[in-house]
Structure formats: structure tokens, C-alpha cells
Amino acid sequence: MNKKIAVFPGSFDPITLGHYDIIIRGLNLFDKIIIAIGKNREKKSMFSLKKRKKWIQKTFIKLSQKKIEIDSFDELTISFCIKKKARFLLRGIRNQLDFEFEKNIFIVNKELYKKHIIETVYLFSSYEKSHIHSYLVRDIIKNGGDYTIFVPSTVRI
Fold first, then answer.
1. Residues 38/11, Cβ–Cβ less than 8 Å
2. Which of 19, 32, 53, 87 is catalytic?
3. Strand partners for 72
4. Which of the residues 11, 87, 125, 134 is marked catalytic?
5. Which of 51, 84, 94, 129 is catalytic?
6. Given 3, 39, 43, 85, the catalytic residue
7. Which neighbouring-strand residues pair with 34?
């Protein structure tokens, strides 16, 4: 039987309740989700890869290792999906800007990888989580605000 494996990519700098919401809801659709921490050369991360991975592990420790895998990658997301034998790419949509960005990525992926069937599955963010962005959480942290209401309880600076 072919397992339904999805890759959920992101910088997770840090993981937020918005990410958590998409992952938990995605587990109803897929046999396994690979949480893929991307190394973005364009931006400097606030937190080390090691710390981000540890937070994600702690966040999902109660879930079966068969359902969640945590990995990192330094390549095109679609190439990582092929390498991991994932047939699905899971993405969250918060707003119209996310939609336009994701639509363009979807089209580019289809053009680049015509031989590989990797379906992109979009989940709209829950209304109460749709305003949460990692960059806003980082700004709150930098300025000494209460970031804890936007991240899982495992994320403590």
C-alpha cells in the first residue's frame, strides 16, 4: 500500500501556533507528515537550526514517530519531496498574499517537474490563527513582548 506522505516546509523560525494548526489538521489527511526545515540563504535565521528542530520535536513528542518526521533541507522543496518519496506538498494559506505566492510556486513546480506527480494540498489557516507570522513573533521577541501567546508551549527563549 502506498502511504500518503506529505512534506510541510518552512523556516519555523520559530514554529508558531499557525504552523501547529496546519500540521495537526494535516494529520487527518496524510499517513505521515515530514516537517521540513528549510535553510533559506536569503534570510538570516534568528534561531539555530538545532534549536528550531528541538522545539518542533518537543512540540510533537506525544505523536507517533510514524506520523511525524522532522528533517531539514538545503535544496528546492520539490527536489526534497522527490528524495523523501513524498507525493504531497502541504502548505498553509493565511491570506490573499499567501495565495498569490503559493499559486506561482505551484505553477513553477509543475513546469520543472512534469515527470513527478506531487500534488500540493493547501489548508486555509484557522481564522483565529490567520494573523500569526514567524516574522511578527521574532519582532515581538526582539522588542521584549509576550510572544508566548503565538507559539506552542515548548517554545521558550
1. yes
2. 19
3. 37
4. 134
5. 94
6. 43
7. 7, 69
Catalytic-residue membership of 116: no
Query: Could you report how far apart the first and last alpha carbons of the chain are, in Å?
Result: 42
Tally of CB atoms within 10 A around 98: 17
| Pick from 71, 81, 63: nearest CA to 27 | 63
45 is catalytic: no
Helical ranges in the chain per DSSP H? 17-26, 49-59, 77-83, 96-112, 134-142
Residue 131 designated active-site: no
Known catalytic membership, residue 43: yes
pTM: 0.93
Question: Cβ distance 13 to 137 under 8 Å?
Answer: no
Torsional sign, CA 89, 12, 74, 65: negative
Q: Does the pLDDT at position 46 exceed 90? A: yes
Question: pLDDT-derived band of residue 39, with 50, 70 and 90 as boundaries?
Answer: confident
